[in-house]
Amino acid sequence: MKIALLSRNSRLYSTRRLKEAAEERGHEIKVIDVLRAYMNIASHNPTIHYKGEILEGFDAVIPRIGASVTFYGSSVLRQFEMMGVYPLNESVAITRSRDKLRSLQLLSRKGIGLPITGFANKPDDIKDMIKMVGGAPLVVKLLEGTQGIGVVLAETQKAAESVIEGFMGVKANILVQEYIKEAKGADIRCLVIGGKVVAAMKRQAVAGEFRSNLHRGGSATLIRITPEERSTAVRAARIMGLNVAGVDLLRSNHGPVVMEVNSSPGLEGIENATGKDIAGMIIEYIEKNGKPGNTKTKGQG
Length: 301
Known about the structure:
By secondary structure, this protein is an alpha+beta fold. The chain has three domains: 2-95, Rossmann fold (3-Layer(aba) Sandwich); 99-113 and 182-284, 2-Layer Sandwich (D-amino Acid Aminotransferase, Chain A, domain 1); 117-179, 2-Layer Sandwich (Dna Ligase, domain 1). It has helices at residues 13-24, 70-82, 91-98, 100-109, 126-132, 157-169, 227-240, 268-274, 278-289; strands at 2-6, 28-32, 37-40, 47-50, 53-55, 60-63, 86-87, 117-118, 138-142, 151-154, 174-178, 186-193, 196-204, 219-222, 244-252, 255-262. The protein has a five-stranded antiparallel beta sheet with strand order 14-13-12-15-16, with helices on both faces. It has a four-stranded parallel beta sheet with strand order 2-1-6-7, with helices on both faces. Helix 1 crosses helix 9 and helix 2 runs antiparallel to helix 3.
């Protein structure tokens, strides 16, 4: 197969591993900086150009699109879809999962366990919203934040009011969520491929930190998940429409709750923690499903 890998940096661990896994299995794979791809949006012959050449003849495309370039990256991916190239994750599913509020609303509608979450626009509503999510301590999250950036733990009512007012003052969109104290600074990353959890790791925050992201210095260890956690992760990925997803869960007193569904999960932490060849599993999934025009959305939405 001829595979396009959309990534801004060919030296990143996940990009390198996917390239190695594809080449080991005899495929031709080209890493494409998504911001250098440009498009001719013609009704009968849509094309993608890259550094002066037309990109053609691809059977599948693997999107590794960073959160900061979601709009442009998903537009390029949509163009591949219009050309009949099989996407590992579809553009509409990626944009759906990147919108934190929309994704939580979709998960809520399907009965997935979530932390109590508030969303408001006016400072006048802050006190009632804090009460609505169970009071302090609580977590304030920027809608556009990634890797734990823009996530604040407010430990008192006064701190919560100040933080929320501050974010609202600069017109930032935020979510306010209950703090799951019993999780003790740990979350579970479930790696879902094709409707199955193929690996899971526990991420533990460093002392004095509540964010367990590996980018924030958290540690990763192998963990055995419960059938309910497995089912929750699989359902969350399916609701987002993602073939490959990293689903982040917290263990709460009322069962697993989903924090986020990630459409471009990093491979380094989970491969190291579990010893599994996740990149190889992703390429194997593409081999089985990567047929021309095999997209649900056909580039729509």
